[in-house]
Structures are given as structure tokens and as C-alpha cells.
Amino acid sequence: MIKLYERQLETHKEFEMINITADVRKAVEESGIKNGIVAVITKHTTTGIMVNEALPCVEKDIEILLDRLVPNDYPYVHTHMLPTYGTCSGNAPGHLKSLLAGNHCMFPVIDGQMRTGGEQNIYFAELDGLQIRSYFIEIMGEG
Amino acid sequence: MVIDIHTHPLLFDEINENRDDLLFRKEQFGVFKSGIVPVDFELRLLEDAGIDKAVLLPEDYSAEAGRAIISNDEMVRIVNRSPEHFIGFAGIDPRREDAEKELIRAFDELKLAGLKLNLSRLHMYPDDSSLAPIYEICEKKNKPIMFHAGYSWEPNTPAKYSEPIRFEDVAVNYPDLRFCLAHMGWPWWEETIMMLMKYPNVYADTSMVYMDSPKNYYSHLFSVNMNLNWLQNCFQDKVMFGSNNPRFRHVRSLAGMKELPLRQDVRDAVFGGNAIRFLGLEG
Fold first, then answer.
1. What are the angstrom distances between the C-alpha of B64 and each of A56, A118, B68?
2. Dihedral of the alpha carbons of B206, B207, B210, B211, in degrees to the nearest 10
3. How large is the ipTM?
4. How many CB pairs under 8 A join A and B?
5. Which of B51, B91, B171, B204 could form a disulfide with B58 if both were Cys (CB 3.0 to 4.6 A apart)?
6. Is A4 an 8 Å CB contact of chain B?
7. What's the CATH architecture for A2-142?
8. What percent of chain B lies above the pLDDT cut of 90?
9. What pLDDT digit, counting tens, does each position of B82-119 carry?
10. How far, in Å, CA of B90 to CA of B111, rounded?
11. In this structure, what CATH number is given to the domain that contains residue B23?
């Protein structure tokens, strides 16, 4: 049995970590799947799905780390007009931060609940905001 | 006051109620992968960027395309969503039989603030005699024209029709007509600055980030290709900030321009004051 949900959200900052753990837990509970696995997958190439502790200091450290590794002011190659888009690329840092963040996470589903460690939270990470974004929650297992 | 003098609202949800409308506009304008933009979200983008007002530019090639990319009535619908933030221009295909009548309606009844023309797309030189009635209406009604100038990303747009020097006869023959050579007339920026310095009612905008980051691009154009003092001392009252959104995000274009080490009076002029004069909005 497979259940797929698509969620949409509007981001509010260039960099933003949005805690979506409660939404994923609710989707698992509503899916009717008792035992299996849940995957959370972003639809974009300048966002990420992260798992970490939901503390503002940790969130800030993640932001600082990504800015240090991927500075805004750098001679990136992805800075030119894109004929297939008709727009100019100006978001190389978002793409590279997305590479570091990863595009998905997975957790076990046991007795109809998502099973995580006590401090594990799921974040949708905006790395190229503001934008209108989407992500998938896919639950696979036995009903 | 920060004004973005050069934006295109073709992706706004207000006028794209069905998919065919959106696809038509994207194909005509040459924007292929961008999605629909809710007007409420666009207002948040402007607020986030620190832009107080955005000039919205339509285009009309209905004589060949069958309909305008954005009609004048559609432009009014968009502006009415947030009149304090949006300034709508008119579009007119000069080849339309009702071109003069429609332009007068756009100004008198619809209260649109100026006219957008891309002569490269129309395959008309600026001194084409069929454009004279259009220029006369704009001059008489004190409405500025935003001319595409130089390199265009729209399909079927030979740049030769929009070379800045080609607009000199318009400046000579219609001395009270304010017009803007968009995109600084790139790559003919030297011709553009000649026009800026010689003709009091000729303006230009900065919507020209075609390569590199906005910071590097503006720095190179204004500080290496030119001397920054040329902008500060010779045509500081003629250059207006413009982003060309959605071809380039306004927030990033603005951030790049703000990196230029300009005097405060020049910053005030480039980011808003010059646009206010161009638009005829002085108090």
C-alpha cells in the first residue's frame, strides 16, 4: 500500500528552516498504513530536507555553516542568461546549499506512527527564498 | 522611495485564469520555465526587496499574435489589486487599425501611466512614419514611453531596430516627449549615455543583468566600462533602477546596484527620484 501527499508552502526569507514534523506525523496517521516507511522529498533543486534538533541555536549554526561554505559573493559559473528559461540564473548558492542539505529523509512507520528519535525534527529548508514551494510525503507499507 | 521602473507582470495569477493564457504569454515573451505568480506573493516579494512601487509593462503584438500579451484592460485589473504599489503602462500594437483610439482610451479612461513599445519585436525603426501619431499622443498627454533598447530576449527581435542612436530623431522631433532607453541600450551603452547627456527628456534604466552576478555586472559596467563619476556627475538625473523581473529577480538586481559606492544624492535619484520625474509624478 502506498499513499502520496503533496504539500505546498510559501517561504518568507532567503534562508528559512520550516519545521514540518507535525505535518508528516499527521500524514502518517491519516494514511492508514500501519508498518512501513515514510519518505519526505522536496520537489526543488534549491531547497533541502533536513533532520536535526529543533533549537534556534542549532538552526542558526546550520545557517552560518552553509553561508561559510557557500558564500553569496563568489565567481559561480551559474550566473548567466539561460536560453531554456528566458531568465538569468542568479541562485548558484541555493543549488550548492541544496547539495549539502540533501533532498529527502526517511523514517520507519510502526503501529501507524512515525518513529523518530526524541530530538529528531524534520525541516523543509528554503535556500533560495522567497518562493512558493512543494514537497512530497510518501508512505509505503502494510495497511 | 524605491521604484522598480522595469517589471513584466505576465505571470501574475490575476490574468492567467487558465493554462492556455499562461502558455501564450510565456511563449510570446520568451519565458519558458517560470510558473504562475500570485499577486499577493509578488507584493510580498516587493516588500522583502524594499521596493515601494513597481512599474508594470505590458506588450501588444496583436496584429500578428491575435491578442495582446497583456491587454490594457488586463493591466488595469492587475493595478487595481494594489494601486499603491503598482504603476501600469499601456501597450499598443501600432499596426492595429484602432491603435490611436485605443491608446487614447488607455490614457484617458484607464488612466495608465505611460506606453511600452518594443520596436525590435515590431520590426520598426523608431523613425518609422507610422509611429508618429503614437508619439504625438504621448507627447500631448504628457505620458512617457518605455522603449526596449538594445539586446532583447524576446523571440524574433532583431536588435538593429532598437539601437539607441536610432532614437535620436524621436528626441529631436518630439522634444517634450519623455522616453526611456531600457536596459541601458546594452550593448550600445556608449550611444545611450550620449543620448542621456544631450537630450533632456531621454532616460535609461538598469534592467540589464545578462551575465555575471548583479554586483559584478553593475560594478564592471559603471566602474570599468565607464568611470563611476560619469554616472554620478554627468547623467545622475537620467538613470533609473529597473530589474527586468521576472527575467531577473528584483531583490537581487537591487542588491547589486546598491553595492555601487554612489553618493547619497545619486542613490536617491537612481532608486526613485529619477523615476518620479520620468513618470510625471512630482508634487
1. 57, 64, 10
2. 50
3. 0.88
4. 57
5. B91
6. no
7. Sandwich (2.60)
8. 95
9. 999 999 999 999 999 999 999 999 999 999 999 999 99
10. 9
11. 3.20.20.140
**Chain B CB within 8 Å of residue A81 CB:** yes
- Residues of A with CB below 8 A from B29's CB? 86
Please give the residue range of the domain that contains residue B52: 3-279
Instruction: Please report residues of B whose CB lies closer than 8 A to that of A130.
Output: 41, 44-45, 48
Residues of A in contact with B34 (CB under 8 A): 85-87
Residues of B in contact with A128 (CB under 8 A): none
pLDDT at B180: 98
Query: By the CB < 8 Å criterion, does B12 face chain A?
Result: no
pLDDT tens-place string over residues A8-62? 999 999 999 999 999 999 999 999 999 999 999 999 999 999 999 999 999 999 9
State which amino acid sits at residue A95.
H
Cell of residue B126, nine digits: 523608431
Tell me the domain boundaries of chain A: 2-142
Q: Does B47 touch chain A (CB under 8 A)?
A: no
* Cβ contact, residue pair B247, A130, below 8 Å: no
Report the domain count for chain B: 1
